# Entry
Amino acid sequence: MNNITIGQYIPGDSWLHKVDPRIKLFSLIILMVGTFLIPISAEFTPLIAMGSIFVLVILLTWSTKIPMKKVINGLRPIVFLLTFTFFIQLFYVRQGQLLASYELYLSVSSIAGIILFIVFYNFTKKYIKTRILYFFFAAFMVFFIQAMLPYIPLYAYQLDIYDEGLLRAGFIFIRITNIIIMTSLLTFTTMTTDLNYGIESLLKPFKIVKVPVDLIAMMLSLTLRYIPTLLGETEKIMKAQASRGVDFKESKFKDKVIQIISLLIPIFVISFKRSEDLGNAMEVRGYVIGQKRTRIDAYKMGLKDFVTMFFALVILAALIYVRVLV
Amino acid sequence: MGIQFKDVSFAYRGLRQNYDAISHINLNIDKEGEFIAIVGQTGSGKSTLVQHMNALLLPMSGVVTVFGQNLPPKKNEKINALRQRVGLVFQFPEYQLFEETIIKDIMFGPKNFKSTEAEALEKAKKAAAICGVPENLLEQSPFRISGGQMRRVAVAGILAMEPDILVLDEPTRGLDPKGRRDLMQIFQSIHEKQNKTIILISHDMDLVSEYAKRIIVLDQGKIVFDGKKEDLFEHPNFESFHLDLPTPLKILKELSKEAGITYQPKYDYPSLLAYLKEVNHE
Amino acid sequence: MIKVIDLSFSYNANDEALKHVNLEISRGSWVSILGHNGSGKSTLSKCLVGLLAPTEGEIYIDELRLNDENLPKIRQKIGIVFQNPDNQFVGVTVRHDIAFGLENQLIPHDEMEERVAHYARLVGMEEFLGKEPHQLSGGQKQRVAIAGALAMEQDILILDEATSMLDPEGTREIVELIKRLNKELNKTIITITHDLSFAALSDELIVLKDGMKILEGTPEEVFKREDLLVSSHLELPFGLKLYNDLSKDEKTPRHVLEALWAFNSKM
# Structure
C-alpha cells in the first residue's frame, strides 16, 4: 500500500486551489499563448511585459502557499534544455553591439580543471539545497575555467557576447521558466479528477466535429487510475524475472532486449486480461459508450472564477496589444 | 552455509509507511533438510524478509549471508549467481510467463545461469515432470492453458534452475482445494526426495501445520517466535501472535472440552482421524 | 426470482461450457454454486448478467425474459462482483467508483451523493471515500465493489469467486458482509466458489461438473455426497469431513458426534 497519490496535487486552501478547474485550465492556456506572443526586443514595452508576467507568476506561487523550492524543482526536467538554450543564444547571435569578448582555451590545464571541477560538483551536489542554481553555476564554471586556464593550449577560440544575444538568451530563459512554473502551479493546485474534467470540458466544443469527447475523457480517467497499479505490477514482474536470473544491471544490447521482452509480455498479458474484465464490469454496471451520464462531481462557477477568467483575458488583450505595437 | 541474518533491518524509503519493514532480524537457516513456514499478519514483513534471501532487497543495517556471500555486497561484487541457489517463487507466479512455448519458458531460468541449450532442456524436462506438466503440453503456448497449469509451469521454471533452497510466497493462493493439495505434494516430495530446504510463506494455518516442521512468526517486522511447530501451538503467549489455531487442534481442544477425549496434538487430517478412531474403539 | 431453463452455452464447436442446466433461485435466498475450475460456473454467472448469450435455453430474471430488449431493465435487477479486485475498480477514488453505476443510470447528483455515502457506510468504507485504489487492500477493494453494486439497488447480487484472490482477513470481511446483506437486507445472493466452508453458510448449494448440474440441495444434503464432491475437485471442510468419516464408524459414541456437530455449526 502506498502513500503516493496519482498526480502532483498538493492539498491546500488558497484561492487558486478553489478556482474551477475549467477556468484554471483555460486561463493557463491563455496566459501561455500570451507569453509566446511577446516579441523579443530590447524595447521598453516587451521587457516590461515579460517581466510583469514573471512577477505575476511569482505572486501566484506565493499566493498558493506552496514552498518556492517545490515549484523550482518543477524545472528540473528541463534544466539541461534551459542552460543549453541560454548559452546557444548567448554565443551564436551576432547582432547588435558587441558587449564583451573572451578568449577561451581548450588546453590540457583547462580540460584537467573541468574534469576536477565536475568531480567536485558530483561529490558536493548532495549537500547543496538549491540544486538547480548549483547546476547553472557549474555550467558557468565550465566556461570560466576555459577562460582562466590557458596553459598548454590545444585549441583557442573566441566567444563574443553581443547585446542581442544576451537579450534573446535572457528572454527565452524567462519565457520557458514562466511557462513551466505556470503549468506546475496548475498541477499542484488541481486534483487529477478535476484536471480530467477541465480537459473534458475544453474538448467539448469538438463534439461538433464528431470527436468522441466523452470516450476520450473516460479513457483518460482509466489511464490515470491504472498508472500506479501498473507501476506496482511492473515492479513485481521485475522482481520475479530477476529471481529467474535476469540481471537488470547488465547493459549489453542483446541482454537488454530479453530484459524488456520478459517485462513487456507479462504486462501486455495482464493488461489484455484486465481490459476484458474491465469491459465486462463496466457493461454490467450499465455503461454504454456514447450514452449520456450524470456526474458525481459538481462544478459550479462562482464569482472568483469569472473574475479570474476576466483578468486572464485582460492580460491576453494587453499582450496582443504589445505585439501589435512593437 | 545456508542463510544467516545478523541483526538485519530494512525499511522502505520515501512515501511508503514502515509497517512493511523488518527490524533486528536474527535467523539461521540450514542449507538442507528444513521445512520452514513464515507466518504473520498482512504487513508483518514476511515478503520483505524473504526478498532478502535472494538479494532482491539488501539490508539497510546488519548482514545477510547467503551461501557464504555477505549482503550488502562490496562494491562491484556480483550477486546475481545467488538467485540460482535460492529460488524464489512469488505470489501468482503465472504472471512471469512470457516465452513462446512452455518448454522455452521453463528453460529461461537455467539459461540465464549459463546452462547450455542442451543442459537447460534437460533440466526443464525434469522440472516439468516433477510439477506434473504433461509432455504433450511442452510445445504449447503458456497462455493457452488453465490457471492451475500455468502455476505449475511457473514453479517448474524455478525448479529447473536447480536451486539449493526453495522459497515460496503463498504458492497456493487462488487455487482450488485439489490444486492446493497437488502443489503442496510436489513441494513435499522435493523436500523428502532431495532433502531440500523449503521456506514457505502462508496464511493458511492448516497448510502450515500439515507440512512445516519449523515455524517463524513475524509481528510488525520482528520475529516473535522461531521454533518447532509443536512448540508454537502450545506456547503460553500464542494469543499475542494473532494467529489461528490449525483446525485439527481446534477440533481436538473442543472434543476434549465437550466430549472428554484426551487432548493429544495432531497436525493433519489422517493422523487426527486415526487418533479419534483409536480413542473411540477403546 | 431466477429461472434457468435448459441453458447451454458453447464458446465454440469443441467447447461446451454449459450443458442443459436447469435451476431456480427464490427471492431472498443465498445460493452457492460450486464446481471445479472449468465446470462452467463462471460461464453461468456471465449468462445470468447478460454478458454471454446462451446457445440454447432461456433465463428469466424476476419474470423478465433475458434478451437484448430487456437487458437494460435486467441490469437494474442483477449485479455482479468479480474475482479480481483490481480489474473492476473503475473510479479514480472509492467515491467515484461507487458512483460509477449510478452515473450510468442517470441518477441526479444529490441523490447520488446520498447513496454513495450510505452504501460506503454500509460496507464500512466511509473513511476511505477519498482514497485511490492502489492504497487499498484486496478486501477493501472488494467491499467497494459490493458497495457499488448495492448502490444500484439491485435485488440480486452475484459474487463470482469474490474471495479467491484475498487473504484470510479479506475473506473474513467479505463473508461477514455477505451474511449481513442476506439476513438484514434480504438480498438474493449467489456466491460462486470452490470454498466449501464459505458455501456451508448459504441456504442452498448447486454443484456443477463439466458443464452439468450434478447435485443440489441444502448444505447438509450436499455434504453427504462426498464422492461427488471429490470427483469435482472439491474438499469438504475439515470438521465436516471428520463428521462424515466418524459417522460411518459404528464405534463412534453419540456424544462425540454431537460435540463435533456443535463445533461445525459454530464455524
